[in-house]
Amino acid sequence: MIETYDVVIAGSGPAGLSAAVTASRMGCSVALLERNGIIGGNLTSGYVGPVMGSVSSGSIREEILELSGSQQDDLYYDCEQMKISLIEWLAETSVDVYLLSTLISAQKQGSSLTQVQIVTPGGLIQLAGKVFIDATGDGTLAALAGAAWQQGREADGLTQPATLMFTLDHIDPAVSLQCRHEEDDSLINGTSYLGLCRQAERDGRLPANVSIVRLYRTVNPGERMVNATQANFVNGLDPRALAPAQVNLRRQMRQVHQFLKDTVPGFESSRIRSSSDGIGIRETRRIEGDYILTAEDLLQGRQFEDAIVHQASFPLDIHNPNGGGQAESEGCPPKAQPYDIPYRALLPRGIEQLLLAGRCISGTHRAHASYRVMGICMATGQAAGAAAALCARSAVSPRNLDVRLLRTALAQQGVCLD
User: Fold this and answer.
1) Cβ(351)–Cβ(331) under 8 Å?
2) Which alpha helices (DSSP H) does 145-279 contain, by range?
3) pTM exceeds 0.85 for this model
4) What are 2's strand-pairing partners?
């Protein structure tokens, strides 16, 4: 069976959702492929919060945050509410969603991607498209199509560690403790909270390499989302590595929780309410594009004539690939200046009719540490969706698209690019 669409998008996380809704609103028939049984990726089953990374005003990121009922100032949201809101959002835009559908092959004519094959509970399905978007995070579609890619840091190929996030409830609502980053300290009975974390790691009360227990507020009183567990040396592309990593991380959850119960007044009656369905992978493939975004671009706040994301902002947040804390500093990571992402970083070298969105776009290991977060992924997804729609309507390859038309289309959607 062959189904035909204007735009076929692989991956329904923050980037894929944004691409799908954008392309549909621009008049295209859209197929959205998701290997899991739920859409949303890290917004839902990944249990990642808050929504980190900002971009210029008017992006689809603002609409998604509004859907979630988030508190705009802090970007916290309710994962359960998001599960409802996102699937309704897609239904309203007439996107065809293929759940439990895994990419298994990509077909090309010459250098142009023309079809993909997916395996579903009902069997194999071929999907033909005018334009495709890889929003898988892992760059799976681009790799199947033969695109070149890189993984890990340049020196040794190590990637950032894996994490499993979870939420605690039954915390005393009077407790104000938060720990959002490596320099967000508080006093616990007159002692530095961050110092208590470091000491607990040294004496074995926290897992090895867990030298900070980050705590984020949620939209509900008496809750904290916990970002602490860490599994180093996990290759997110190796399925044999994922189950042992999950065993490790779920055991770490218990240990981290016990540390908080023993250490922080008001956490004594807390319990683990919920957690990510699977482990959180920060970094796998980075597809080589027509432009490779660099850390220097970010640190200098570089602007580009073909910018499709403007004023992206998030630190170069490299969780140490072979230890605890940050890779490049003991405290907060290097801060990027508000920077642009060029359209060329969404174009995989040597492959036509394919666009990239989300954390698999073209960049270095250090640059990726900034643009990988959800708020920025939503913006690259919106840009890829708009580009795909323009290309599908005019029968032009994404590489030959006049970027001025794309920037105009994004500006008409309210995105500030200047």
Assistant:
1) no
2) 193-202, 239-263
3) yes
4) 126
